[in-house]
Amino acid sequence: MLEPGLDGRHRDQDGRISEKHGNTKVGTLRKTYGEDFAPGIRGDAKLSTLLKRENVSSLSQLLKK
Predict the structure, then answer these.
(1) Rounded to whole angstroms, how far apart are CA atoms 48 and 25?
(2) Distance CA 25, CA 31 (A)
(3) Which intervals of the chain are annotated as region Disordered (predicted)?
(4) Residue 61, helix vs strand vs coil
């Protein structure tokens, strides 16, 4: 890890901040964003499923909603 990035993510060697993967569990995201993150969604659901359901393409867009 070169330098810490946003939300505990790391920067790749070219300086880009890595994105959350679609297979990240909603329960894991609740540890970062709080228990109110994605109400009504099971903790074992994948981020990719949540993004499709909310019709957004990234976690950043979902957080802005």
Answers:
(1) 9
(2) 10
(3) 1-41
(4) helix
What is the predicted pLDDT for the residue at 4? Answer: 52
How is residue 57 written in tokens?
């393409």
Residue 62 in 3-state DSSP?
A: helix
DSSP 20: P
Q: How confident is the model at residue 1 (pLDDT cuts 50, 70, 90)?
A: very low
Return the domain boundaries, the chain: 20-64
Query: How far is the C-alpha of 57 from the C-alpha of 65, rounded, in Å?
Result: 12
At residue 56, the 3 state secondary structure works out as coil
DSSP state of 19: P
Which residues have C-beta within 8 Å of that of residue 51, sequence separation ≥ 6?
22, 57, 58, 59, 62
